[in-house]
Amino acid sequence: AIIVTSDHGDAMGEHNMQWHGAELWEPLVHVPLVIYVPGATPHRVKQKRSLIDMAPTILALEKVELPGPKELSGESLLPDLLAKDASTIVERDVYIDMPEGPNNQTRRAFIHGDSPGLKLIHFGGAYFQLYDLATDAEEKKDLAKDKSIAGPVIEAFQQFRARVSEIAVPRPSE
Q1: Do 1 and 83 contact (CB within 8 A), yes or no?
Q2: Cα 149 from Cα 124, distance rounded (Å)
Q3: What is the residue-averaged pLDDT of the chain?
Q4: Which of 38, 57, 155, 165 counts the highest number of beta carbons within 10 A?
Q5: What average pLDDT does this structure show over 15-30?
Q6: pTM of model > 0.85
């Protein structure tokens, strides 16, 4: 198998940014993913997927038994890769976690619903931003104040986070 992807994108002026690693806007987190599996019929998966699925996918390709969800988050993409019919490929939510670093506070994002989805960005506490990526790909119109839209997405985000094992990354000593 051959896998081509990236761990991040780069900002080219979007949201007044010229760098990466401090925010979770789409130009920084929406990356290409191309997987070639010998014998599999080439096709495009239009549903959103996450890089958290890479380790389980590689293990599945190598026929290595997957550890439990406490040891390894994510799901193998092998069913997507071997799908004979696009209608069998299901939507999944995407969780993005960026730990605190020297240039940023902790940030989390959650993309929910039918692709491209509603993107919730969590800045900590009760501070959220919400964007409909189908109608607002540049993430300019924050919908978080509309509780009828934001409420169900925040609830799904909190339920998803409750299932994910997070590992605190210690700050390097100064």
Answers
A1: no
A2: 19
A3: 89
A4: 57
A5: 80
A6: yes
108: closest CA among 45, 144, 157? 157
| pLDDT, average across residues 95-118 | 89
CA gap 140, 161 in Å, rounded: 25
Mean pLDDT lowest among 12-21, 49-58, 97-106: 12-21
The answer to whether 49 and 69 are in contact (CB under 8 A) is no
Residue 150 — φ and ψ, nearest 5°?
A: -70, -35
Name the token pair of 87: 């209608």
End-to-end, the C-alpha distance of the chain in Å comes to 42
Q: Which residues of 145-155 are buried (b: 16+ CB within 10 A; e: fewer)?
A: eeeeebeebbe
Section 46-60 average pLDDT: 94
Give the Å distances, CA to CA, from 141 to 26, 96, 148, 164: 14, 20, 16, 29
Task: Report pLDDT for 169.
Answer: 67
Sheet holding 128-132, edge to edge: 94-98, 107-112, 118-122, 128-132
Side chain identity, residue 128 = F
Q: Which residue, 148, 150, 102, is CA-closest to 122? A: 150
Check residue 22 and give its pLDDT: 72
Beta carbons within 10 angstroms of residue 28's beta carbon: 22
